Amino acid sequence: MTNIMIEATGIVKVLGDGAGRVEALKGINLSLLGGELTLLMGPSGSGKTTLLSVLGCMLSPTGGSVQIRGRSTTGLGLEELAKLRRENVGFVFQSYHLFPTLTAAENVRLALDVRGERASPARMKAERALAIVGLSHKAKSFPRELSGGEQQRVAIARAIVGDPSLVLADEPTAALDSENGQAIMTLLAHIAKDPKRALFIVTHDPRILPFAGRILRMEDGQIVSDERRSERTGAVRTLKIAS
To answer: Which pTM does this prediction carry?
Structure first.
């Protein structure tokens, strides 16, 4: 049975007004499935980050609807959207966004602190998340004591510690060398195998294409192609999207 983590229908997003008005998204239809790693690629200005922000409930669409685990975001206020985001979405960014005065474990626990989880259970969850990314031995280290790859692993641990239905990553390998980028993608691909979680990555990095089960390509605010790889055969099925 298909396990849809998030579904976007007819998403339109207009930015600015007057002479600066831009239709950044033009009727996007997209479902993300549990257990699947999806890449979104396209030129700068094509709307990739805007789409990621709408899916992550950081931006409200101008038109259309988003459903996360069957719950529509339409009509929700800012506090309700924030709660839905905290409970269902984890984020990984290019620049890590770690607090320099907090240890690795404390940075991971932040995602639980904002949900009001108690200290002892939160500590245990943070320890488990750091173990998943291979950094149990760095729990008490500060960001300045970690390599770029290790900092990104902490950011991934923070993204998954609350067991979200959707993990959104914006250029997670862009600040890393080839070896660390491959290691991070191997980790993300492993995390994406959980059938209760969808992983969606915006990227310009062609080196990570082999890790994807699905590749979307975007141009001028629209998804123009949708490729899925068969795990069994490696064959690629491409669906061209009508304009």
So the answer is: 0.89
- The residue assigned the tokens 């989880």 is 117
Single out the residue of 206, 232, 187 nearest to residue 39, CA to CA. 206
Q: Is-contact 104 135, C-beta < 8 A?
A: yes
Q: Is 75 left (phi over 0), alpha (psi -120 to 50) or beta?
A: left
User: Could you tell me which residues are beta bridge partners of residue 214?
Assistant: 38, 228
Q: Could you tell me which residues are beta bridge partners of residue 240?
A: 225
Helix then strand then coil, in percent of the chain rounded to 5, is 35, 30, 35
- CA distance linking residue 165 with residue 160, whole number of Å: 9
Residue 169 is encoded by which pair of tokens? Answer: 């990553």
Which residues share a beta bridge with 91?
168
Q: What's the number of CA atoms in the CB half-sphere (13 Å) around residue 135?
A: 30
- 72-113 per-position pLDDT tens digit: 999 888 889 989 999 999 999 888 899 999 999 999 999 998
- What's 176's DSSP letter? S
CA distances from 16 to 20, 61, 167, 169, 242 (A): 5, 13, 28, 25, 27
pLDDT tens-place string over residues 225-241: 999 876 534 545 555 45
Instruction: Note the maximum CA span of the chain.
Output: 54
Q: What is the DSSP letter of 242?
A: P
Among residues 81, 82, 67, 29, the alpha carbon closest in space to that of 241 is found at 29
The burial of 2, by beta-carbon neighbours within 10 Å (0-12 exposed, 13-18 middle, 19 or more buried), is given as exposed
Asked if 146 contacts 138 with a C-beta cutoff of 8 angstroms, the reply is yes
Coil, strand, or helix at residue 42?
Answer: coil
First to last CA, the chain: 30
